[in-house]
Amino acid sequence: MERGNLMNTIQLQCFLAVAENLNFARAAEEIHITQPAVTHQINSLENELGVKLFKRTTRSVSLTTDGFRFLSDAKKILNDMHIAKMRLVHKEETEPVIFSIGCHTSRELIFFPDLLKKIQLFAPSIHPVIKTLPMRALNNLLQTDGIDILFSFQENEKTAPGKFVELYKAPIVCVFPATHPLTFAKVIHIEDLLSEQLTVQEPPNTHPAVFTLQSQILQNHNPSDMLFCESYEAAITLTKAEMGITILPDIIPIRDPALCYVPFEGNISVPYGIYYKTLKNQPLIKKFITLAKEYFSSF
Predict the structure, then answer these.
(1) Per the database record, which ranges form the HTH lysR-type domain (predicted)?
(2) Which of 173, 196, 215, 253 is most buried as measured by Cβ atoms within 10 A of its Cβ?
(3) What is the CATH number of domain 3-72?
(4) Which pTM was predicted?
């Protein structure tokens, strides 16, 4: 293979910019090169990898399945290159300790500052790397040592990405706008929701227990009474806009104060905690888990 055909940083930067904007012109503006140059770099990268990364029409751009799979790898490669460069530019007597944390939603970042302040006292040279990606991508990163720990709801043993330690039992709740009449209910019954418009997270972006509950409710709903979305953040946004109600596992620290959370009958809950690969010779992971347990014990 000729040296000129090897993958390079500009190709990866172009790929990430197009993946984020889904628009070649906006991607070009973001990284300050011409649109034809972006197109050339994407074509070169696709030839190098032997796959198509984007579906392109005259009206739209979208990631292919291979493009989605490559997304987390491209981010990791560029991040590792940045860290390596910083190590050479800023030589220190004490090497930074890279500690990578994964989570599925940006709302989970709310409780990170407290944990990071405390872990820094234990490891002053810690260099946290936080990755917020879809479930499948994060599971793959944990299995391939791309991250050290992963905040997540517990999965079944066949699909679990590693070992799990429970931090909190999250009750499944119905989330309402503050003006909704059911906010005064102590518990919610499935029958209460038969005439409600629902905001539904599509699998695999929701927990199986939530999906099962949603399915029971949706059996009696018309498609016009449903709003489908791909993420926790989108479901919360639509609920705040009073366009529907949503069903979620309730993690108290990340609640939105503008919404009301009412549990379902039967106290259905799912374990929330941390996935990791091993604790052997991993004092930083052990300490972080201890701090996380202390944090969640107050809820």
Answers:
(1) 7-64
(2) 173
(3) 1.10.10.10
(4) 0.69
- Domain segments of the chain as ranges: 3-72, 92-167+272-296, 169-270
* Residue 169 tokens, joined: 């039992």
Q: 């939603």: which residue's tokens? A: 105
Fold matches, 92-167+272-296 and 169-270: yes
Closest among 264, 267, 244 to 191, alpha carbons compared: 264
Within 10 Å of residue 109's Cβ, how many Cβ atoms?
14
User: Is CATH 3.20.20.80 correct for 92-167+272-296?
Assistant: no
Minimum mean pLDDT among 114-118, 162-166, 202-206, 207-211: which range? 202-206
Rounded to 10 degrees, the C-alpha dihedral 52/56/61/63 comes to -20
pLDDT tier at 38, thresholds 50, 70, 90 = very high
Kindly give, in sequence order, each residue whose CB lies less than 8 Å from that of residue 94, ignoring residues fewer than 6 positions away. Answer: 125
